[in-house]
Predict the 3D structure of the following.
Amino acid sequence: MTGGAGDAYADLLAANDAYAASFALAGLEARAAKGLALVTCIDSRIEPLAAFGLVPGDAKILRNAGGRVTHDVVRSLAVATALLGVERVVVMHHSRCAMAGMAEPALRAGVLAGGAELPDGYDLLAMNDPTAALLEDVRRVRESPMVRPGVVVTGWRYDVDTGRVSVEVP
Ligand SMILES: [Zn+2]
């Protein structure tokens, strides 16, 4: 079990006081102004807005470990494409991703070593073959009946050492 620890967040709450004092995004629309949804990894080296000249209000950003197209990403894309103005989807994996750097058993062992538990057979979605994984994720979006027809989907890879993307699945 884990629990809350109030002091652990003092820096964030102090920063929020300053942020709210000069808040400039009031009245922003919930629709994605640039019609974009970007599915990417939780990797803290990636700045999804800055990397593409985007600002708050422009895009839906969906993040998880690896930037994988999971059931919940499809759920979010179903809502975003039907109701929130999304017309184009980018699935963006990246170089030196922890999820691609080790096989599923090693990844599982790493999680368990920290004291966490995982159900038997639980798939953490390690990417033994990053190229195949990106292609599979793009296909999942393209073939999902939950995503509005007419939406375009592409697969990119972001280089965490140069900031440049390459189009891997046009
Ligand atoms: Zn990653």
About this structure: Residues 41, 43, 66, 94, 97-99 surround zinc ion (CB under 6 Å).
